[in-house]
C-alpha cells in the first residue's frame, strides 16, 4: 500500500510558518489581489478558498470580480491600478478567462514583481533558464511534496500528462532542473498507457475523472494527481486512487494532496514578494 503524500499536512506547516512571520510584522501586511472574471463555477470556489486562507493566515486580501462580458481594457486598467498599489504585493488573475479576452495580453500586463502565479512571460522565461523569480504555485507545490517525502528525482523517468501553462509545462522544467528525465504527454500522445508504464514518477494534470487506471502504473511508482474533478457529486482526481494505491509507492489523495499545496505556495510567493518590496 502506498504512503500518502499528505498535502493538507504540509500546506498547514507552510502556512503556520508564514502566519508566525506575519504576526511579527509591525504595521504593514503582505497583500494579495485576486481578479475573477465571469462566473466559471470551479474558479469561484478556488478564489473563495484563496481569499479565506489568505485572511486566516493574517494576509491582507482583495478580490475583484468582473462580469464575463467586461472588456479587456477594464481588466487592464484594474491591473495597472494594482501594479501601483502599495498595499498589494501579489496579483493573481484566475484562469480561465472568458473566450473574448486575450489571456496572454492580460498575463503580460501584471508586473513581473507582483506576479505570484508566475505566469508572466518574464517569470516563465526565468524558470526556463533556471533562474526563477516566481514559480507557478501548483508545480512548486508538487516539488515541495517530493522534497518533504525525500523522493529522489535525479535520473528518474518522470512522465507529466498535460501541457498547460498552469501545471504541465512549468512542472516539466522544475523536474528537469532536478535532473529527472522528463516526458510530457498530451491529448495527441500515442500509446499513453504504455508511456505511463515506464514512469518512475507519474503526474497527471488532465482533468479527466479516474482516467489513470492501475494498468497505467509501474509497480512502486510515485503517483501525483493534480486533477480536481466532480463525479456523482464527489470530488475525485484523475487517478483511480482505490486501485492505484495498491501498486504505487507514494500517492497524493484528492482532496488533500496537491490542492492545498497550491494555496500554501501562493501565500509563500506573496510573502516573498512582500519581503522583496520591504527590503
Ligand atoms: N486556474 C486553475 N488553477 C489556477 C492557478 O493556480 N492560478 C490561476 N490564476 N488560475 C488557475
What does this structure look like?
The model has no long low-confidence stretch (mean pLDDT 97). The chain folds into two domains: 28-111, Leucine Dehydrogenase, chain A, domain 1 (Rossmann fold), CATH 3.40.50.10860; 137-259, NAD(P)-binding Rossmann-like Domain (Rossmann fold). Strands 1-11-8-7-5-6 form a six-stranded parallel β-sheet. The protein is α/β, with parallel strands linked by helices and 279 residues long. The protein has helices at residues 7-23, 41-56, 72-84, 103-109, 121-129, 137-148, 168-177, 192-196, 241-244, 258-278, and strands spanning 3-4, 31-37, 60-66, 90-93, 157-161, 181-185, 201-204, 222-225, 229-231, 234-236, 250-251. Bound molecules: guanine.
Which key features would you list for this structure?
279 residues; alpha/beta; binds guanine
Heterogens: guanine
Do you know the CATH topology of the largest domain? Rossmann fold
Mean pLDDT: 97
Question: Span from first to last CA?
Answer: 48 Å
- Rg over alpha carbons: 19 Å
Helix coverage percent: 40-55%
CATH architecture heading of the largest domain: 3-Layer(aba) Sandwich
Using the coordinates above, name the CATH class of the largest domain.
Alpha Beta
| Element string (H = helix, E = strand) | EHEHEHEHHHEHEHEEEEHEH
**Structural domain count:** 2
Let me know the number of strands.
11
CATH superfamily of the largest domain: NAD(P)-binding Rossmann-like Domain
Strand order of the largest sheet: 1-11-8-7-5-6
Tally of DSSP helical segments: 10
Structural class: alpha/beta
Low-confidence stretches: none
Largest sheet: 6 strands, parallel
Amino acid at each position: 500500500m502506498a504512503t500518502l503524500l499528505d498535502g493538507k499536512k504540509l500546506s498547514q506547516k507552510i502556512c503556520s510558518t508564514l502566519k508566525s512571520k506575519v504576526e511579527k510584522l509591525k504595521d504593514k501586511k503582505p497583500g494579495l489581489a485576486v481578479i475573477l472574471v465571469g462566473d466559471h463555477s470551479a474558479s469561484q470556489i478556488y478564489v473563495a478558498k484563496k481569499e479565506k486562507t489568505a485572511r486566516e493566515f493574517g494576509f491582507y486580501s482583495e478580490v475583484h470580480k468582473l462580469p464575463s462580458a467586461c472588456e479587456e481594457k477594464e481588466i487592464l486598467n484594474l491591473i495597472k491600478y494594482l501594479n501601483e498599489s502599495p498595499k498589494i504585493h501579489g496579483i493573481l488573475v484566475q484562469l480561465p478567462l472568458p473566450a473574448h479576452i486575450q489571456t496572454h495580453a492580460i498575463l503580460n500586463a501584471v508586473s513581473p514583481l507582483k506576479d505570484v502565479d508566475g505566469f508572466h512571460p518574464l517569470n516563465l522565461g526565468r524558470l526556463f533558464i533556471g533562474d526563477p523569480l516566481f514559480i507557478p504555485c501548483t508545480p512548486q507545490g508538487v516539488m515541495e511534496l517530493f522534497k518533504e517525502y525525500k523522493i529522489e528525482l535525479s535520473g528518474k523517468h518522470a512522465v507529466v500528462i498535460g501541457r498547460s501553462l498552469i501545471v504541465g509545462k512549468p512542472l516539466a522544467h522544475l523536474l528537469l532542473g532536478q535532473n529527472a528525465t522528463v516526458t510530457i504527454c498530451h491529448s495527441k500522445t500515442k500509446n499513453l498507457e504504455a508511456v505511463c508504464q515506464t514512469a518512475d514518477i507519474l503526474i497527471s494534470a488532465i482533468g479527466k475523472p479516474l482516467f489513470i487506471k492501475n494498468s497505467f502504473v509501474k509497480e512502486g511508482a510515485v503517483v501525483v494527481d493534480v486533477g480536481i474533478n466532480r463525479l456523482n457529486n464527489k470530488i475525485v482526481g484523475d487517478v483511480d486512487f482505490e486501485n492505484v494505491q495498491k501498486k504505487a509507492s507514494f500517492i497524493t489523495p484528492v482532496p488533500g494532496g496537491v490542492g492545498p499545496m497550491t494555496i500554501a505556495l501562493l501565500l509563500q510567493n506573496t510573502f516573498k514578494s512582500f519581503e522583496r518590496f520591504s527590503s
